[in-house]
Write a structure and sequence with these properties.
The protein is of the alpha/beta class. The chain is about 40% helix and about 15% strand.
Length: about 250
Amino acid sequence: MINGKKIAVVLPAYNAEKTLRQTCSEIPPGLVDILILTDDKSDDRTLEIAQELSIDHIIRHDSNRGYGANQKSCYNKALESGAGIIVMLHPDYQYTPLLIPAMCHMIASGLYDVVLGSRILGKGALKGGMPLYKYVANRILTFIQNIFLNQKLSEYHTGYRAFSAEILRKIRYNNNSDDYIFDNEILAQIIFLKGKIGEISCPTKYTKESSSIGFLKSIIYGTRVIFVSLGFIFHKTGLIKNSLFIFDEEN
């Protein structure tokens, strides 16, 4: 707990049996109040290992619903549990849990609504094993989105994020995609609401156990990122309404 805010770390898991134990072991002790894991019907022993660890809430999907749906279950449970700060940490050990305190303090200070663990700040992405084509695509898409969304973020595609409970309650994330584009949609929604986004440099590790989408899915994802950005502009200018950016106060 920081500044009276409960801290929840959520683990959207899928086939993470080889890295889950190590990831959880490196979460700084004494800081996290609630640990939540959602297993998206893994084919391996992820669920069994999770049950052996000190995880407060384990949610099991009865079918493989997708990366976005996995996050929805995590955030819903975290908010229901009274968390004031929610950190999404991938259990594949691609991102270091050691940055959780710094990210939470940035939220607890009231200066930021969201903090992103950026792989691009510094020079760690390629050194950490990010495939070159992913790095190039990341830079191109980020450049385009910074123009369309009028931001100066170093990247939009990191899976390491901390949110204030207040900002999550303001957006209708349960209506977002169940697929990988969920990450991009939720950031665009927060930017639309003028949420304050901070970044922190994060080393990354790409191994054979790291979750990653293939080349074809990357192309589909990149195309959908452009559509999210265009939808943002069209809705903001009033040209075409987009349900992604219609919130409760507009209904």
